[in-house]
């Protein structure tokens, strides 16, 4: 077998190494004398063929891996082949190999390897603009715009067009120092390529992000002067005009649509902007025109139906949603919003029927909940339970969550014991479900069955000892309903270690410290919790801790501020009543 390896390798690797190992290109013949040129042009005299290109041999330790990769590709084992080709592309100075590996990585949608290989290819082939633009795009997708800008410049230097505005997609999530670096690099690109429209649009995006609308508009002026129908520039110009509350913010976009009445992309941008600005009548008109251009476009029909729902034209919304269902497009969304239209028209039976048609997806659980609530509102308790049973039978993969929805609806209407029955039935089928067990624990608390609640929470902690939410819930329950404060404090302290700075946990720990008489620590923790989450319950706790610490005026201020936000907040009013405190201003003599 060993004697046949070399010929096999040559055959298998021939396609791979066409340019990779024949790296010395043919040289043009040297200029000769006039006689020699005449002879070269004479049909009777043929020039000598150029010498074959010099070959660079494959290193011995790469021969077998490359051969193996070829056979893996023939067997359609793409991922192991890609791993080998990537390793070899990083090892060998062979642009063709790197390019082939990159194509395979892109085919496998492996962004990490694609980025590695694009960077490698850009290094190996200094004329490959596509490699630089690929590296730029992948770095943008990875949220690394400052590195992407390096390859943006490389691509421009190699003569490529770049999607410069994409460099700013992650601007809002960048820390200040990275924003400064990105802004500086984008401005530098604009200085070096002042006529580049893509970069000019990126500058406009940058200046809008920097809250400088006038300079953003100025950056767009030359772009729109050169190309009045440039879609991205028109869209950004309109958005900036909306930002500053300008009159007729859509005038340029509308003019472009008028010039290009069959340009669906432009008209769609106008329709969406009108809808986002709540200019509903004009948005409806534009979507209606889009449907004239593409009558079977379900996306246009769906958008028009949503606008009609927003405009409270429920009958029109129904017609369009029924047409959408007739087209067989976006069925789950169509049935869900058809149910919403029926519900707004007080057509409960039709709404339930529509909601029941919604399958697994984004709207599924809300549709199920709405159908259940409508059945309960109609007094159909048995049908309520049967509806969930049918849904679980149709969608067994969603059974656990459907049990949770059923129990939550029962808890919300005060049928807590029935909710516990549902949770118990579900836990027989899904004994390790944290969602179901935690839900039953909260139902036990509603019934003031603290032992039952503690049992469920501890069962969760047996499976997940570091579940911070459950640790906090158990600790707070023990604080409020028992005098086991030391045990509660230990649980909540562990929860805070796992989730530092979480307001709910800070509040729980502050409250248990208060119960333990550790007033100063309690005030510090509750103050931090209140600054992060000024909730009425936290305000009640903080006020009482301040009051007990002798800081009555501070306590009164916290309570007053909370009641100004939520006048009926029972946590605060109950605390005031229990302490015998009045917030009435003192009488003036």
Attribute tags:
589 residues, mainly alpha, Serine Threonine Protein Phosphatase 5, Tetratricopeptide repeat, disordered N terminus
Briefly, what is this?
The protein has helices spanning about 5-15, 35-40, 60-75, 80-90, 95-105, 110-125, 130-140, 145-155, 175-190, 195-210, 215-225, 230-245, 250-260, 265-275, 280-295, 300-310, 315-325, 330-345, 350-355, 365-375, 380-395, 400-410, 415-430, 435-445, 450-465, 470-480, 485-500, 505-515, 520-530, 535-550, 550-565, 570-580.
The number of helical segments is 32
Q: Outline, from the CA principal axes?
A: globular
Classify the helix fraction into a percent range.
over 70%
Biggest sheet statistics:
none
Class by SSE composition: mainly alpha
Proportion of strand residues: under 5%
CATH superfamily of the domain at 465-584: Tetratricopeptide repeat domain
Distance between the termini: 112 Å
For the secondary structure, the number of strands is 0
Unreliable segments (pLDDT under 50, ≥5 consecutive)? 1-44
The name of the CATH topology of the domain at 465-584 is Serine Threonine Protein Phosphatase 5, Tetratricopeptide repeat
Give me the CATH architecture of the domain at 465-584, please: Alpha Horseshoe
Mean pLDDT: 89
